[in-house]
Amino acid sequence: MNNDEIVPETEKDYFETAVSLEVVFKALPNVKNFTYILPKNSINIITTKTVEELLKIPHFLSLDKFEMSEIPGCFDIETFYGHIKVKF
Fold it and tell me: Which of 83, 80, 68 is nearest to 34 (CA)?
């Protein structure tokens, strides 16, 4: 659900109202391992602000495993890599 609206089941409408990755993480405070294969059209799921917002979530910083594939170009890999480099 996104803003109390049911996410449409058709692919065209789904991506327009899809829930962002950071909203998903906020709703899963006990997750330790996360694997996600992004759909081809991941508009509204991953944005230029996704990494910045994920790094603000305390339980995201304590994940044991984070795996994502089909990452779009707007994902701020430089900032994400900087976090990984500091953590390890």
Answer: 68
In a domain, 3, yes or no: no
pTM: 0.73
Tens of pLDDT, residues 26-67: 999 999 999 988 877 667 788 899 999 999 999 998 899 999
Q: Identify the CA nearest to 64 among candidates 33, 25, 28, 30.
A: 33
Is there a domain that residue 2 lies in?
no
Enclosing domain of residue 42: 11-87
Residue 6 resides in a domain: no
